[in-house]
Amino acid sequence: MTPLSINAERLLGRLRDLGQIGRDDDGRLVRLAASDADRAGRDALVAWIRAAGLEVVVDRIGNIFGIWSNDANAEQAPALLGSHIDTVIDAGIYDGCYGVLSGLEVIETLKAAGYAPTRPIAVAAFTNEEGVRYAPDMMGSLVHAGGLSVDEALATIGTDGTVLGAELERIGYAGTEEPGFLRPYAYVELHIEQASVLEREGVSVGAVENLQGISWQRITIEGEANHAGTTPMAMRRDAGHAAACVVTFLRDRALNANSPTVATVGCMSFEPNAINVIPSRAIFTVDLRDPDGERLRTEEAALADYLKELAASEEVTIAVDRLARFEPVTFDRNIVALIEGAARERGLAVKRMTSGAGHDAQMIARIAPAAMIFVPSIGGISHNPREHTPDADLVAGANILLDVVARLAAR
Ligand code: HGY
Ligand code: MN
Ligand code: MN
Ligand code: MN
């Protein structure tokens, strides 16, 4: 019997349609959490969920759920699929959206095939996975998993000074359902790999067995504004120079560590930000990651020690705000094995791997058995408009998700 397959045209068409929603005047895809662009993307998703005949539930942090249940199975814990549809700035069209739209596609395919699951199957689009406008990232799934109170999350101030709760109200996605209302039986997230391991090794499917730890900090260095022309070098309290020292410290340390540790300074601003004024203030972010929780703590401590020395040597003051901190996660072995088995049955090469990126699965794994399926990213590029995965790989990944969920929802 040929295995059931998803409707490739419908999935790929929706991915492309959603990928056009939220483009700015320069044509860049920017659907930051709780923005007008996010509302437009959410509206399109809710319309597709409704058209599929699923129940739509929006919780207080704006997580959107499409739920397929019937009288016979409604009391059972659902098998949950999902990811996110918010994006970074100048994003690709697959990150997050692929997992949400594939989850919906899988449910529609099973429904149309007359499949009668013993438990409901639901798909979630979690709010603010990217964390670009409001930190921490993976916020909606973190609240759903009980790792952050919904009131605290709603009070978050964004990089643009807005308040998340007010923005969710404004875009019409401040739901009434209490977060965590849905306790999943299991959670499976399909996602592009966002790195180049699968492509380099010619493997179609990644069975993701763990996900690295993440530490986000915002650092503010206060020096002294002074005249760029008259102030001797030895008499400067240059916040900009101190910030540059931190960037170099982090890069050299991660580059020379014989470990997979990665360090990134993604945002930086100077004040007063004038060509002929020594910066009085530098504000920047640090993103540290490591698959080993202990090593991540060692890196955080090494940075803290370095900042102390730097403050003394440069005569500046340094303040640190912690924005996010997530331990590494090991996913559910049984679901990982289901993913491997499903790939092999479809004649696809599959590889167990670690995720370098953060995902909603990292949060949902706190409350349910969870795992992830990766498909290749061409050139390993992501968080970039050149992000690309061939259609055949996108369809294959969605069919693996179909097989895994059909088995999970039959239990
Ligand atoms: O940063 C991350 O890894 C995630 O995409 N928010
Ligand atoms: Mn993502
Ligand atoms: Mn992302
Ligand atoms: Mn992510």
UniProtKB/TrEMBL annotation:
CDD domains linked: M20_bAS (cd03884)
Q: Where is the Peptidase M20 dimerisation domain?
A: 212-312
Keyword line: Hydrolase
Question: SUPFAM superfamilies, per this entry?
Answer: Bacterial exopeptidase dimerisation domain (SSF55031), Zn-dependent exopeptidases (SSF53187)
Gene3D superfamilies with a match to the protein in the record? 3.30.70.360, Zn peptidases (3.40.630.10)
**Cited Pfam families:** M20_dimer, Peptidase_M20
Q: Does the keyword NAD apply?
A: no
Q: Name one GO molecular function term.
A: hydrolase activity
Record's family?
Belongs to the peptidase M20 family.
Q: Per its record, how is this protein called by name?
A: Zn-dependent hydrolase
**Lineage summary:** Bacteria, Pseudomonadati, Pseudomonadota, Alphaproteobacteria, Hyphomicrobiales
